[in-house]
Amino acid sequence: MHELVFAGAHLGQDITRIPVGGGGQVGNHLIRYWAQEGRYRITVLGSGPGTEWNGVPNIEYHRIPWSVPGHTGVLTDLSVSGYASFSRQFERGVTEFLTELAARRDPKRIIVLHNDLAEAGDFRAIHRLGFRQATIFHVDVVDYAASIYLRGHVSAPTMARVFRGAMRLGVSRLLPDVLRLMFEKQEECTRYSDLLVVPSREMADVLMRSYPHLLPADVLVIPWGGFEELEMDEAAVAAEAARIREEYGLNGDRPLLLSLSRISPEKGQDLLLTALRIWERKEPIVPDVVICGESAFIHGRAYTERLHRLAARLHRVRVHFPGYVTGVRKAAFFSLADLYVFPSRHESYGLTLVEALQAGLPVLTTNHRSARDLVQDEFGRVVEATPMGIYRGLQELLRFDGQELAAMGRQAKRFASNLRFADAAQRLGDAITGLLTR
C-alpha cells in the first residue's frame, strides 16, 4: 500500500455547516474514495477538528493549529489580512510536519498532495526534503486576480511575467504578503510540483502560457464530474419540496430560476439580479428566483448585503435567499427549479453546475473556464458574464414552455451521466501513484 500525505487547508471542517467551497468538497470526496479503495495509507493535514475521519481505516488525521487575533475561528469569516495570516500558519505547519516525517521515513516512498496552493506547504522546502509533490489547482489565483481585481484588462500570463521580473530584481520581497501568496507561491508551485492537476482545458492553457517552463506532461486535466450523493430517497425529497413551496409561496404559476453557490463576488449573483432589472422593464413573464448559499471568505458579508439591496429594487420578480443548503434540501430545490443559472465571473470548474445537470435541469452559465466543456446547446446556453449577456440568455431559454425546458433537462441528465467523480478519483490516483515510479 502506498503512502499519501494529503494537505488541505479546508479539510477537517464540517462541510454540512461551513461553506468551505468546491475545493474542500473535492478533497473530502477524494479521501473517502481512496480510503474505501485501499490504494493508500492516507495522512490528512487539515485546519478543522476532522472528527469525520475518526476510526476510518487507512486514514490518520492531523490538525494544523492556527489562530487569528480578533476573529471567531470560523475559517470562512476571515478578512484579507486574516486569511493571509491563516495561510502562512498552515504553510508552516505542513512544512514542519513533513520535515519531521522525513527524519523518520524515506520521503521518496511518500507522495504529498496539496489540495490548492495559496495555503499549501513551502513547495521549495518540501522538494528539498525529497518528497514528490502534486498540487490540485482548484483556483489559479493569478488568473483570478486578473479576472476579478483587474477585470480582465491585464491577462494572467502578463501578470505572472511581470512578477517574475520583480523576483529577478529582488523587489518582490517588498510586496505585501497577500500578493506574495498569490504570485510567488504560485510561481514556486509550478517549479517544485511534479504534477499540476486542473479541472478544465482552458485552465491548463492559461497555466501553460503563464509559466513557459511547464511541459505538457506537467499538467493533467481531470474534470471532477459530479458527486453521486444526489441519489436520495424520492419521498424525502418530495416532502421537503412541498415544505419549500409553502415556505416561499411557490405555487408553480411562475418559472423558477435557481442559483446555488457560496455568496461571493466572483460567483456573480449581482449580475443575475441586475439582469432581472432589465428583464422587468422588457418582458411580460415574471419568474421566481432562488439564490441559495451563504456568505463565505473575503468580501462575502458586504457582498451579501449588496445582493439584498439589489433584490429589493425588483418590483415584479420575487427573490428568495434560503441560505446554505445541503443534502435533501438541496435536492428538493433542484427538483422544483425550471432553469439553473450559474452567473460566475470566474470559475475553474463548477461543481453545482454539474449537480444541476445531474438533476435534469437546463442551464444558463457565463463563459467561465469549463463552460464549453460542460454546456451544450441541446440543454443550455453560455453567455458573456454581463447583465445584458445573462438577460439575453434568459430571454432565449424562457421562451420555451415548461415541457420544452423539461425535455432539455432530460438531455442534460443524459450528458451528465458520464461525468462521474469516481472516474476522476481513479485517474488522479493512477497519476500520483505513477510519480513514485518516475
Explain what this protein looks like in three dimensions.
With 438 residues, this protein is an alpha/beta fold. The chain has 2 domains: 2-225 and 421-435, 3-Layer(aba) Sandwich (Rossmann fold), CATH 3.40.50; 228-416, Glycogen Phosphorylase B (Rossmann fold). It has 16 helices and 13 strands. It has helices at 22-37, 80-104, 123-129, 141-148, 156-169, 177-192, 201-210, 234-248, 269-282, 300-312, 327-336, 351-358, 371-374, 387-397, 402-416, 421-435, and strands spanning 2-7, 40-46, 59-63, 110-115, 132-136, 195-198, 219-221, 256-260, 288-292, 318-323, 339-342, 363-366, 380-383. The strands form 2 sheets. A 7-stranded parallel sheet has the order 3-2-1-4-5-6-7, with helices on both faces. Helix 3 links the parallel strand 4 (110-115) and strand 5. Helix 8 (234-248) crosses helix 11, helix 9 packs parallel to helix 10 and helix 9 packs across helix 14. The chain is globular and about 70 Å long. It starts with a strand and ends with a helix. The mean pLDDT is 92.
